[in-house]
Design goal:
CATH class: Alpha Beta
Protein name: Gluconate 5-dehydrogenase
Helix content: 40-55%
Keywords: Membrane, Transmembrane, Transmembrane helix
Organism: Mucilaginibacter yixingensis
Pfam families: adh_short_C2
Order of helices and strands: EHEHEHEHEHEHHHE
Radius of gyration: 17 Å
CATH topology: Rossmann fold
Family: Belongs to the short-chain dehydrogenases/reductases (SDR) family.
Distance between the termini: 35 Å
Strand order of the largest sheet: 3-2-1-4-5-6-7
Number of helices: 8
Length: 252
Amino acid sequence: MIDILNINGRVALVTGGGTGIGFGIAQSFAAAGATVVITGRREDVLQEAVAQIGNGARYYVQDISKQTELPAFVERLEKEVGPIDILVNNAGQHLKKFMRDTTDQEFLALLQVHLLSVFSLSREVANRMSARKRGSILLISSMSAVMGMTQVVAYTTAKTALIGLMRAMMAEYSADNVRVNAIAPGWIESDMMFKAINADEQRKNKIMSRIPFNRFGKPKDIGNAALFLASDAAEYITGVFLPIDGGAAGGF
């Protein structure tokens, strides 16, 4: 049964794979035999990440929010590395502000990174997967798509919209054996998460009180779930929204 999780020889693209959750996913994929490609905006971070990932991991400096560049980026990657078998839309940024203080520009900037660019990149990759009659696409949503939270209106809107995008893609691409699923990480240890909560002790305590496991998750927790959904072990699973949250969504 372990062999069914093997993705040896497959090309996996993980956006925002240099740190945090994306890095954890990239590590899991590489350990399972995939040729992993990570993207990000900071070359020094990417260089350090691929050195730690090993197993032939590669990186491309690419700002995913630049939608007009994405078709050429996908074309280049497939020519230089190979057909993309797995896509993980993970790249993102955070904005902690009450709605009353969030400007139109800030709102749009979050949508650009978390939703609009995901649509564009997924379309380019899914169309190629469709022609090859195989592929797995993962969208990284959030617990903010499950429960209402203050001070994250733009982030919440984008991450909730990803669920609709996932379902629409599932309906359109399943006939071509392209699977599309979404993961909703809970509170997972990362620089972005700690930046968001460390300055707000009350919010941090409230979060911890909601987690039955009484601890934050680790990037590998998301990486292992992503590996399952991307592997043949999940070959009949598509259109799934999977919270990985230590029980937070259902806890009391």
